[in-house]
Amino acid sequence: MQIDDVAPYLNAVREQRPLIHCITNDVTQAITANALLALGASPVMARDAAEVEEVVRRAAALVINLGTPTPARIDASVKAAEVARALGIPWVLDPVGVGASALRRDAAAALLTKGPAVIRGNAAEAACLSGQTTTVVPGVDAVGAVPTARDAAVDLAAVRDSVVAVTAARDCIADRTRALEIDNGVVMMTRVTGLGCCTTALVAAFLAVSEDAFGAAVAALTIMGIAGERAAGTARGPGSLEPALLDSLYDIGPADLVREARWHPLSTPAAEGVAL
Ligand SMILES: Nc1ncnc2c1ncn2[C@@H]1O[C@H](COP(=O)(O)OP(=O)(O)OP(=O)(O)O)[C@@H](O)[C@H]1O
Ligand SMILES: Cc1ncsc1CCO
Ligand SMILES: [Mg+2]
User: Fold this and answer.
1) Which residues, other chains included, contact 6 with Cβ-Cβ below 8 Å and sequence gap of 6+?
2) I need a labelling partner for 161 at 20 to 30 A (CA). Which of 116, 176, 195, 215 fits?
3) What mean pLDDT is predicted for residues 132-141?
4) pLDDT in tens, 181-209
5) What's the whole-number mean pLDDT along residues 15-22?
6) Which annotated residues bind ATP (predicted)?
7) CA 205: distance to chain centroid?
8) Ligand with smallest separation from the Cα of 28
9) What DSSP character marks residue 189?
């Protein structure tokens, strides 16, 4: 895979303005909707069981984010995922803080049976989904002794039939046969809540315009990292990073991606010698 393969996805989103149905958390709904709008997609936040089936039918892709789960919201999410799967609408799971409670773990387990095209989380969340119960996840941020994104992504991709996209200092996207690291982004991004949730939503926007889930995840994580770097050039701290990052998502063009992406293809144990 080359950057020239995914850079055109950006114009495809801007031309098609795909409707992205987000079932997300109480903390990051507004920044997630704004990130999708800045990129060029069209968000709809809808999470009541009374309407999710109707809304997802009209969507080009679905996000299910477990950030602030309730039993009712989880039921609605399962329902939406079932409809999406039946209709061939791609969807992405963000297992926010999955290690923090049994409610989140059970919800993630139920949703994983509904065929997400992509799982996007931080390294602690991905390790938890792989069954590495020794990883402690006290909240929603990856802290303490967590594996690298590379190990977390490759391990989870080996046990799940999904693309896995793990964000960290060096992001990693993996499926069963391929893996790619992305070295874009700045550490200040971890001081603004919801930039991971936004990254997940961007994955959905690219899933809406591409058949290739691996490419969609790579495009989203590359763009988020570059947007963060560009925003950090003018930001004085996390407060000004957030609006500057939205501006960067709005400004960024395919040629910027080609120039600024820092990719490192990996060969995974499952695929020694398989070219990207
Ligand atoms: N240490 C780091 N250095 C540089 N960039 C980073 C670092 N950690 C995360 N990022 C970048 O920040 C963005 C958000 O990823 P992060 O891993 O913080 O998501 P998250 O933990 O799910 O966040 P949230 O749950 O608040 O939405 C990604 O683009 C990622 O590449
Ligand atoms: C801080 C926080 N708590 C639940 S969801 C969320 C937003 C980041 O995922
Ligand atoms: Mg997160």
Assistant:
1) 206, 210, 215, 216, 218, 219, 222, 257
2) 195
3) 67
4) 999 999 999 999 999 999 999 999 999 99
5) 99
6) 120, 167
7) 10
8) 2
9) G
Contact, 188 vs 241, CB < 8 A? Answer: yes
Pocket of ligand 2 (CB under 6 A): 25, 27-28, 67-68, 96, 140, 193-194, 196-197
Which residue type, as a one-letter code, is found at position 180?
Answer: L
Residues 6+ apart with CB under 8 A from 77: 23, 47, 52, 64, 66, 107, 111
Residue 125: which H helix or E strand, with range?
helix 123-129
- Domains for the chain: give ranges and CATH numbers: 3-261 (3.40.1190.20)
Give the Å distance between the CA of 120 and the centre of ligand 2. 14
Cα of 113 from ligand 2 centre, angstroms: 24
Report residue 140 as tokens. 């929603």
- Protein residues with CB under 6 Å of any ligand 1 atom: 96, 122, 140-142, 167-169, 171, 185-187, 189-190, 193-197, 199, 224-225, 228
pLDDT band at 89 (very low <50, low <70, confident <90, very high): very high
